[in-house]
Amino acid sequence: DCKCAIAETPRAIPRGESVTMAINYRPGNSSGSFRHRVFVESSDPGCPVAMLTVSGTVYRSLTLTPKTLSMGKTAIGTDINVKAYLACEETVKGISVEEIGGNALPISVTVTPITVQSATALVSQPNRVLSKAIDRKYVVHISIRTSDLKEGEYDGTLKLTVNPPRGVSTFIPYRFTVSSPIVICPQIVFLGRLEAYSERIGEVKLWMVQGEKFQILSLVSDIEDMTAKYSTDVSRESRMEWRYVSNDEVKKVDGTIKVTCLRLGDSKTKAKVKIIPVYGYAPPTPGHETPRGQ
Known about the structure:
Layout: E1 5-8, E2 22-25, E3 32-41, E4 49-58, E5 63-65, E6 69-75, E7 80-88, E8 95-99, E9 107-116, H1 119-122, E10 136-144, E11 152-162, E12 169-179, E13 182-185, E14 189-193, E15 199-208, E16 214-221, E17 226-230, E18 237-245, E19 253-263, E20 272-281
Parallel strand pairs: 6-12, 14-20
Antiparallel strand pairs: 1-2, 3-4, 5-7, 7-10, 8-11, 9-10, 11-12, 13-15, 15-18, 16-19, 17-18, 19-20
């Protein structure tokens, strides 16, 4: 009943057999739901005209800006909130998001309309081509909860579906890095060259990225001759004092200090463990000195 549906029919169908008929629907500039009838004429005296019904929904293409979400670096426990801008000729009643890059992200999405451009607004844009449907523009709010994520880089693709489950979808790559909320300086304790009965003293400073309060729960070193002192006070920054005393047997030091910290308000199951490497080297054994120039 319109010129928008074209059926490709075979010229002859052998008696007792069936064929597949393709129907091409051309929506042109129209959008939304459609329902049309297709009449198939044949030489069958019992059914000279067969009527088929073709129905469906035409969705206009989506434009999402930016094309890639580069969300930078954030600390564990600090949610990532970004905005994207969506242009669509369909009225957006809902939107869903799915991560298809293999990362299990706790992610949510909402959409809010910006404006619907009116004919008056288009007067100031003479170079714009007026179409039957006026673009609708929306802000897409994407939120990722990082409290349950591990440190590291995350990259993949988000699938955004407008008016799910049968709506049109678009894809947007993303990338971000999650780091520990606790910063340690220095990140490595270097004892330098060690002599018999030598002593090294130093300190390590710890603080929260977002200026929140935390507490050191424990401190453990796997180095036999190293001791450390720390405060269990809840504060925005803390200091750990360490002391190393070598005995008469000078040997290479290669170990770690394990610091367990807890952010104020978190349960102990969310305590963060930071590993501080500790290195020191012993002088060459007599008779095994490194030749000069090597």
